[in-house]
Every structure is written in structure tokens, then in C-alpha cells.
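Tutorial, part two.
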Amino acid sequence: MPVQSTNPDYDRHLPEWELMDAALDGEQAIKANPRNLPKPSGMVEAEKQDGEGNRYLYEGYVARAQYEHWVRDSLRSMMGLVSRLQPEIELPSGMQGMLENATADGFGLKQLFFRVVRQIVSHGRAPLVANIDDNGLPYFSTYAAVNAINWKIASQSGRQDLVLAVFREFREKDDSDEFGHDCEPVYRIYRMRDGICHTEVVNDKEEVLEEERPLGTTGADQRLVKGLGYLPIIYCGSTDNSPDVDEVPLLSMARAALKSYQLSADYFTALHQTSHPQPWVSGLEGDVELSVTGPSAAWDLGPNGSCGYLEFQGAGIEAVRQAMDDQKNAALEAGAKVMDIGGSESGEARKARQNDQHATLHSMVITAAEGIEQGLRYLADWLGFDEKLVSFTVKPDFTSVGVDAQLAAQLLTAAQAGIVSHDSFWLYISTGRLPDRDWQAELELIQQQGPALGGLGLEGLNNGERE
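Running the prediction step on this input gives:
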């Protein structure tokens, strides 16, 4: 089979991902696809008679339709909540650089976390690949769900694990000029070969662009850092991090928005026709032409002529409007389920309960953090560090907690005196939360911290004067 072959699970979910892409791109993307708004039978018949002359009927039908941006607005609200969260990260000394440089395009772990959550919320899937660059530095490659086209699971050391993964990438064409943007697809393949993870890149003609080599081969001398006995790939999902495709959390909302768009085409066309009745005439004699209508036009119908209007009664307009309201309510209900962030359950208990029902923002935050932590453990193992020194956790507390000025002043005094750590003070100032750690861990932070906060008062903080 060719390299472009896709996993059957991918084929089943591709239409859903394409719908989500269009829903997030907005009205222009929705209207660009005629399948999103089928032509009424009358317009189909009119175009059979004169396709070019009657094309305006459907163009007007589409132009009057209105697509509501519920999906985009909902995603923005959810990411606003997620942006309040502060990941708690622990890394070996040799991986500290990933705090600020963890992605292929040079962003840190916190930004990576936001990207993963956004992709999970919008598409239910965020593929991550742990990798090492030519300088031997660790980083993550991220892919859109539509570009993770194939994967295969087989027995590995007595367990079911990934043995193949194919990702579609886009590279600028060789003949593209300096200001051009023409790209062509290439395919990056990860496979197990003789118990070691290998990678290569081919084009759509299966011509080799990057020869197969063990993953982790770096530098001009092609030195292998360490051969991996597994594929360092995590498919972060809306309910778990297995390669199987999870549900798309906002899909129900996108479908409701699409249905509302289709109904709106009928609704606004009906209103248009109600406002513009069709005139009719009869009984005209001779070569009488009536090509102009309107309040400023006068017709001479002769002694036997008569005229009138065929008015659109609009009996079904209210029913269509009610159907549009029903779709809006369905979208709001779907969004509310995903936004289920309240309650006092523990994170794991809440995730277990919600996973039996649907993916929620709460469970997706936990799943995203677990996926990134797993990738960091892969990298630690790869570079020879102790995996136990790796931790990436996020407590999905979305409640808006205010900062108590008196408590902040007490913490500042304690931090200045070396009684609490600087980290505890800054955590409270930025999030309104106190750290969840025992006194021994707090003591270790105090011993590790730099100079005290002496001389910095709350007035300075209010003016943005932070060290």
C-alpha cells in the first residue's frame, strides 16, 4: 500500500475534523463549501434550464444565510479559563531549558500545554512526538489531527504498542520563489526496525527525501544518542491518550451551528420574499412591455388589463425561526456539558465520572497534562536522566479566586524573612491559590531560592515592579 494510506479510524473521523476546521474558520469557510447548504429543488430545476443565468438564485440564497460563531466563541471562553491554570513542572537539570524552549518553533512547556488543550477541545486529538534536534536538545513536534494519517499497533515485548506512525507535513517546493508560498506534502514515517525506532521522510511518489535512520541520530557525524525500543509518540485525546480516536468535544455544537445556518437560509429568504412580492399582469393587448416595477413606475395596462401581487404568505416563517432557536439551545446545552468545571470532587474521581458521560474541559486538562508528562518521561529516558525527576501536573481549578490583601502582605513579610518560599508568594499573587505541598518541600524551596524579597512592598507589586 502507498505511504498515503490512512487508518480506517482516521477515515471515519476525517469529516468531523473538517467540519470543526470550517466551524472555527468561520462563516466564509462554511459558505465556501456547497455541501454545507444544499440547493433547494426549485433552484436545481432553474439551473437546468439556464445554469449561468439563474445562478444568482443560489448565490443570493447563500449570501442571505447567517452562520453563528458559537464554536469559535465557546473555544475562546474555554481557553480563557485554561489560561488561568499554572502547570507545576519538575525536570532534571539537563532538561530545564524546555521550560522556555520545548517546541519545534521555540515555545515553552506552558505554551505547549495550551496548544494541546486547544487541539483536544476543538478536534479531540493532539498528536505529540518527543524528539531530539541536531544539537542533542529535546523538544516536541505537534501535529494537527488531520495530518496524523496512519498508525498501527502490534505486540511489543509482550504488550500492545505502536509500531508505525505516519504524519503528513508540508514543505516549500524547490522551485518556489522567494515570496511564494507553494508547498507540497511529504510524509514522515516512524517505525520499529530490529527493536529500535527509526524514521524517514518520503514524498507522495515515495521518493526518499531523508534516509531511514534510528531516531535520535544527531550532528554531522550522525551520532546516535540512544536507540529507543518504542515510538516516542503520544496521541493526546479528549478522554485518554491511546492511539484510538476520541470523541470531538465541540462536535455537537458545530453540528447545531451548521443546522442553524441551513435554517437561516430559508428564514432570511422567506423574509426577503415577503418584503419583495412578485407582480403579475394579465389582459394586455398589443406589444406592451412592462420591464420596470417599483413605487416610482406607472403602468398603462389598457382598457382590459389588470395586475396584482403574488405575496409570500410566510406561514412557515415562525416555525423556521423556532427551529433556529432550538438549534441555539442545543448548542448551548452541548457547550455547557463540555464546560462542566464546577464541583468539589477530586481530579481523578471527577475525570472517571465524566469519562463515562462525555469529554469535559476538566478531564481534557488532566489528559493533556498526562500526555505531556509522558512525553517528558520519554525524553528523560532517552537522555539518560531519572524519569522519577519528571513531573508535569495541572490542577484544573477554574474557580475565580481573589487575592486577599492582608494575606498577601503576610506572605510577603514571611518571604522576606525566609519563612516561606518566594514561589509560594508569587503563586498566591498570580493565581490566588496557596501551594499544595508539605513543610519539607517548602523548606527545600526556601533553601534553593536566591536573594530575599527585601525592599519590595505591595505598593511596588501594584505598580508592576517585580524582580
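The CA atoms of residues 289 and 339 lie 63 Å apart. In part three we will examine how such features are distributed along the chain.
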